[in-house]
Structures
1.
Amino acid sequence: VQLQASGGGLVQAGGSLRLSCAASGRTFSSYYMGWFRQAPGKEREFVATIRWSGGSTYYADSVKGRFTISRDKPKNTVYLQMSSLKPEDTAVYYCAAKLVSTERYDHWGQGTQVTVSS
């Protein structure tokens, strides 16, 4: 499994960004695709996930109502639309994948930096 994240950048508080994660290497119908983030000096934390088949989604409380995860099956791409961004959203964002049957995410892409200025 290969995951390629992109779309990070610098944005002012209140602004929006869309992250993309291009996935390849296998069929993802039995996978959850997720986004995580890690801020400086902090542990990596869960942001959102989507089940590839069916499209059910789950979000961290800190981003509910502001972030939306989606997937484009023909493009094998997962998106994270981020709106109403806050300085505390500043972090390196990672996309990840796991089988529905497993607990841990075991495929990770490289990170993309998101910086929100106040």
2.
Amino acid sequence: VQLQASGGGLVQAGGSLRLSCIDSGRWFSFDTMGWYRQAPGEQREFIASATSGGGTNYGDVAKGRFAISRDGAKNTVTLQMNNLKPEDTAVYYCNGARPLLGVNIWGRGTLVTVSS
């Protein structure tokens, strides 16, 4: 059982993409699900997260352009990305965590390429 991320692809600058992450078959809900990205030669950086209770948190990279949403306590999360820029080019990873169970799971990532 693992996180399945989808929705990446090639888009022109100024365009939009919607990433989805689905986790099925797990008996518990993640406390937090989030999105991170890693560009070539760079460290992985935080984009946004959403809790099972409906709270959201955004990194500086996301503010004003990206929006995270989660379907209640279900282990699904989406990331709507608008006004994409070439510097948004990276592999985007989904994460699910439930610290009290010692759970911190990463999906395989989906590539987003923004052309100028």
